[in-house]
Structures are given as C-alpha cells and as structure tokens.
Write a structure and sequence with these properties.
The chain is an alpha/beta fold. It has a single domain, classed as TIM Barrel (Alpha-Beta Barrel), CATH 3.20.20.220. It is built from 12 helices and 8 strands. It has an 8-stranded parallel beta barrel with strand order 1-2-3-4-5-6-7-8, surrounded by 7 helices. Helix 8 links the parallel strand 5 and strand 6. Helix 8 runs parallel beside helix 9. The chain is globular and about 50 Å long. The two termini are about 25 Å apart. Bound molecules: flavin-adenine dinucleotide. Flavin-adenine dinucleotide binds next to strand 4, strand 5, strand 7 and helix 11.
C-alpha cells in the first residue's frame, strides 16, 4: 500500500529524487545516453529499438521538432554503425491535431529509415488513437512494406477484428510486422478486457493467429507465463528467431527473464527510451510494479 502511495506521488516529488527511481528504466536525457546503452546491450547479445520520450504535442510546430529529433537520431545511429530500429508515438507527431500532417511527418522518418534499410515501429496508444494509428500504418505499409510495423494490444476487445485487417495486408512481398503486447492504457470494460487471465488468453490466441499466418511478431511481455507459452508455440510452428519472431522487453524490466530467453537462443529487442520527458514514462513503470519502490528505498538507505 505504502509503495502504491509513493509510486502515485512520484509526479509531485522533486525531479532529482524521482530520477533515483527512474534511471533503471531510462537510458538518459540525451542521444549520447541512448547510444551508450545500445552499445552496452549489443555487448550482451541484445538489439534495441529507440524511443524518444514524449506523447501528445500542443501544436504542429512541436510535432515538427519531434520529426527533426527522429531524423537526427537515424543519422546518429547510422554513423555509429549500430543496427537499431526506432519506435515512435504518433500523438507526438500531431496525430490528434491534423492526421495528414502527422502522416507526412511520420512518412519522412520512415522514408529515411528505408534509405538506411532500417525500420520504424508505430507504438499503439490509448483507444482514442487506435483507428488513426491503424490507418497510418496501412498507408505507410503500402509505400514502405519492409520498413514499418505496428502494435496490437491483446487487451482490446476489437483485437480479433484488427488482426484480420492486418492479415489482409500481409503477403510475401508486403509482409506485416507486428509487436504484440498486453496494452498499457487504462481503458473502460466496454473497450478492454479487465481480467488478467482473459487478457493472457487473448494474447496467446492472437500470437498463434500471427504465427499461423506467417506474420513476424515481436513478443513484447515480461510475463513468464506468456513467454513460456510463446516458446511452446515457437516449437509447435518450428519457427526461426529473427526470421519469424523476436522477444521484446522494456529497458530495465525483468533482467533475469530477459537473460534466460537470450541464453535459450532467442533474439531479444530492448525498448530503450531516452529524452528529457522521462518523468511520465517512469511514473508509469513504477506504478505497474510498486514493489520496485520498496527495493529502491531499501537500497537508498543502505547506501546512506
Ligand atoms: C517492448 C515493449 C513495447 C511496448 N509497447 C507498447 C505499446 O506500443 N502500447 C501499449 O499499450 N503498451 C506497450 N507496452 C506495454 C505493455 O502493453 C504492458 O503494459 C507491459 O509490458 C506490462 O505487461 P506484461 O506483459 O509485461 O505483463 P505484467 O503482468 O504487467 O508483468 C509481468 C511481470 O513483469 C514484471 N514487471 C512488470 N512491470 C515491471 C516494472 N515496471 N518493473 C519491474 N518489473 C516489472 C513483474 O514481475 C510482473 O509480474 C510495451 C511493452 C514492451 C515490453
């Protein structure tokens, strides 16, 4: 209970103090930090997807600044010869302000990724964004089928319909590439399944649907029950890692499970967030697992 209270009061605590809790989940504030962490992960046999922190923007000027950050990010990782993919949130590119402008801004990032044989994943945001984000993906996938991917959230009630839509876009020359996760936003029962067991059931059914259709999946979860079941399905379908699927985890979360999966020979892609807007992101991570707050406080007192 006390951990929950501390976790939910994080936004009101001094930033320096919150950083002590957050640094486990964030590469740092600058692109140099993201490069350093990516290199470190590569040394441990992992690949990365890089996310510049930020969500809704107030105007298109701000969205254009985010576009510049992503374009420079691609240049930087190319010059470092680090093979990464990029993850972005369309609301950060003005999705809810002007769809067409957002499309153009994201298109320019995917176009640049295409020139460097790289890849951009469109993160899936709350339910008010899902239709627009699927449409954004449909249009970009038509132009750059090998350089753009989407996310499916297993908790959404609409997911069985959305995956049919993705299956229709999928062909050998236009392969769909999807990240499958549970879904992080708080949604009402009309929109999202609330029961954990039922979410896991839909996660595994969705994963099997993709495997059956030959769709590449980034299996994004820290839930051991799900990674175990996913591994059974991988065997059942005789799939090859990095050709047919990969596992994905958030930077700093469940490192032991992460190492175990790598040791078993599966590709692991770590989601590496960086940027000045780390406060909201890390508050979400800590709210998900308030027990972390207890361990961090213990460590703080020990050091003191
Ligand atoms: C690579 C990646 C990309 C994602 N992209 C999206 C996206 O685009 N849209 C979206 O809605 N959601 C996204 N998510 C979040 C996802 O939807 C889940 O909310 C999140 O992963 C938690 O669910 P879980 O499957 O890990 O299972 P959970 O049951 O929540 O967690 C399983 C176990 O992991 C451990 N754990 C979980 N969180 C923490 C933590 N913060 N610190 C320490 N241990 C922890 C705990 O031991 C917990 O029991 C993404 C997740 C990943 C891994």
């Amino acid at each position: 209970m006390i951990n929950k209270i501390i976790a939910s009061s994080l936004p009101y605590l001094p930033k320096k103090f919150v950083w002590l809790f957050s640094r486990r989940y964030i590469a740092g504030e600058t692109i140099d930090d993201a490069v350093r962490v990516t290199r470190d992960l590569a040394g441990k046999g992992m690949v990365a997807t890089i996310d510049h922190l930020g969500e809704y923007v107030a105007d298109i000027k701000e969205a254009k600044a985010v576009q510049q950050i992503y374009l420079e990010m691609i240049d930087r990782f190319e010059s470092e010869k680090l093979s990464v993919t990029y993850s972005l949130k369309p609301s950060n590119f003005g999705l809810l302000i002007d769809f067409e402008t957002c499309f153009e801004l994201v298109r320019s990032v995917v176009e640049k990724a295409n020139r460097h044989h790289s890849f951009v994943r469109i993160d899936m945001e709350d339910s008010s964004c899902v239709d627009a984000e699927l449409e954004l993906y449909r249009r970009l996938h038509k132009i750059y089928p090998l350089n753009v991917g989407i996310v499916i959230q297993a908790y959404l009630k609409r997911t069985p319909t959305d995956i049919q839509f993705l299956a229709e876009l999928h062909s050998p020359s236009t392969p769909v590439n999807v990240r499958l996760c549970k879904g992080i936003y708080v949604e009402p029962p009309e929109i999202a399944i609330q029961d954990r067991k039922a979410i896991n059931k839909q996660f595994i059914e969705t994963l099997e649907f993709f495997f059956d259709k030959g769709i590449y999946v980034g299996i994004a979860t820290h839930d051991r029950a799900l990674t175990d079941m996913a591994r059974q399905l991988i065997n059942k379908y005789s799939l090859t890692t990095s050709a047919d699927y990969e596992f994905q985890m958030l930077y700093g979360v469940t490192p032991e499970l992460c190492s175990e999966i790598i040791a078993a020979g599966h590709q692991m892609r770590v989601y590496v967030p960086y940027g000045k807007k780390w406060l909201g992101y890390s508050s979400r991570r800590l709210k998900e697992n308030p027990k972390m707050v207890f361990y961090i406080i213990k460590a703080l007192f020990k050091r003191g």
